[in-house]
Design a protein that fits this description.
alpha/beta; Rossmann fold; 6-stranded parallel sheet; 17 helices; 7% strand; cell membrane; cell inner membrane; PNTB-like
């Protein structure tokens, strides 16, 4: 059985694991292959873990078993029981745990090597880089979780003009202590200062960021965790950590950039904070500020006599768990010969793909889910657009009002439809904290109430027609 611990055999396991990582990631590019891709990548991770455990000199088996048991007991029920509306904050929390683990590993390595004494410089540099980025990711992710879970306010919290100088000071403290360690100091107080300064930096970077930017922040912190894991892999000479960390870091960085473009926001502007969560206009401040309400019966009549209907889902639909009722309503309309499509904005909901997963859960056909660029040309040919809980992604002020904080953000061209029905509990603003001019459009009717209950009533009225 000596071949089991053979280095070449272990490297072969790693290569197979990495191939499965990449193949699984490719499967995540489409809803039809996403589940399979996730399972393939999970098999790859299992192989990587097995290969790591087979490394010569691996010990502390009881601690490893204890860690696996604790992780399983906490992780499996959390993942199985989480609601789709809470998925973004669970992603933030689990991502933060990865960053925290990397930061602790750096501390352990510092203690184990007496301040990296006798270690090559690259080991110390990689470990300290991982300590800083991992700590920022852990504490920043916890702030993001608290904002999304509404444990703290989603509004920007900052100290004004002093915010960025404070962030810079904290970064300089962390980097300065790291330089002192690399230069040869073995004082443990220095590594503690590195971790504490980075922890406070995680707080001070994420707290000033408003709710509208939180999906981008989660993606950015995910990229940070990946990069810190890769750095730890370099320090520990662990191939699995290097490759897996770089995949996470690269994919997270690409996703962050794509989401920032979808919001017409630069990543530095997002990190600077201060956007989202504060209402910038009152209902009366919107030009032509008259809101028309409608009833489920009138909405059903409009839908029944349409030739094409587009449904625009948003976070409000997720909160109301209305996706199954929406699918049932769409099937009734299709039975009447009406074409039904779903317009998916890149940042609808609180994370990329949020609406896709919700609708797929309700067995909505994949070919009816249309991305923004694909569906925007259809709105002008659409008789009725049904907006269910979406807000900022349909706001025409993004095109027409240079003074709006969301000006320039690509939106769904809902206002080009012949008529619009908006299902919403009230007139509250979206994550960006600005009123939606679409609600005051003469073509728009508001159907107030819980989305699931409202769609259910519309279904009953459609059946009666």
């Amino acid at each position: 059985m000596n071949w089991v611990h053979d280095v070449e055999f272990i490297q072969c396991l790693y290569i197979i694991a990495f191939a499965l990582f990449i193949y699984g990631l490719m499967g995540l590019t489409g809803p039809r292959t996403a589940v399979r891709g996730n399972k393939i990548a999970a098999v790859g991770m299992a192989l990587a873990v097995i290969a790591t455990l087979l490394l010569p000199g691996m010990g502390n088996w009881w601690l490893i078993v204890l860690g696996v048991v604790i992780g399983t007991v906490v992780g499996v029920p959390a993942a199985r029981n989480v609601k789709m509306t809470a998925m973004p904050q669970m992603v933030a929390l689990f991502n933060g745990v990865g960053g925290g683990a990397v930061a602790l590993i750096a501390w352990v390595e510092f203690r184990h090597s007496n301040g990296f004494d006798g270690e090559p410089a690259y080991v110390a540099i990689a470990s300290l880089f991982a300590a800083i980025i991992g700590s920022v990711s852990f504490w920043g992710s916890n702030v993001a979780f608290a904002k999304l879970q509404e444990l703290i306010s989603g509004r920007p919290v900052s100290i004004g003009k002093l915010q960025q100088p404070l962030n810079l000071l904290l970064l300089l403290v962390a980097v300065g202590c790291s330089v002192a360690i690399v230069a040869g100091s073995s004082s443990e107080i220095l590594i503690i200062l590195v971790l504490v300064a980075a922890a406070v930096l995680g707080f001070t970077v994420v707290l000033p960021i408003g709710g509208a930017d939180m999906p981008v922040v989660i993606s950015l912190l995910n990229a940070f965790t990946g990069l810190s894991a890769a750095a730890t892999g370099i320090a520990l000479n662990n191939t699995a950590l290097i490759v897996a960390g770089m995949i996470v870091g690269a994919s997270g960085s690409i996703l962050t950039n794509l989401m920032a473009k979808a919001m017409n926001r630069s990543i530095p502007a997002i990190v600077a904070g201060g956007f989202g969560g504060t209402v910038t206009a009152s209902a009366g401040a919107v030009e032509g500020g008259t809101v028309r309400s409608t009833s489920a019966a009138d909405a059903a009549v409009q839908l029944a006599y349409a030739s094409q209907v587009i449904v625009v889902p948003g976070y409000g639909m997720a909160v109301a768990q209305a996706q199954h009722a929406v699918r049932e309503m769409a099937e009734l309309l299709e039975e009447k010969g009406i074409s039904v499509y779903y317009a998916i904005h890149p940042v609808a909901g609180r994370m990329p793909g949020h609406m896709n997963v919700l609708l797929a859960e309700a067995d909505v056909p994949y070919d009816q889910l249309k991305e923004m660029d694909e569906i925007n040309g259809e709105f002008s040919r659409t008789d009725v657009t049904l907006v269910i809980g979406a807000n900022d992604v349909t706001n025409p002020a993004a095109r027409t009002d240079p003074g709006s904080p969301i000006f320039g953000m690509p939106i769904l061209n809902v206002d080009e439809s012949r008529s619009i029905i908006v299902l919403k509990r009230g007139m509250s603003s979206g994550f960006a904290g600005v009123d939606n001019a679409l609600f005051f459009d003469p073509k728009t009717s508001m159907l107030f109430g819980d989305a699931k209950a409202s769609v259910g009533t519309v279904i009953e009225e459609l059946k009666a027609l």
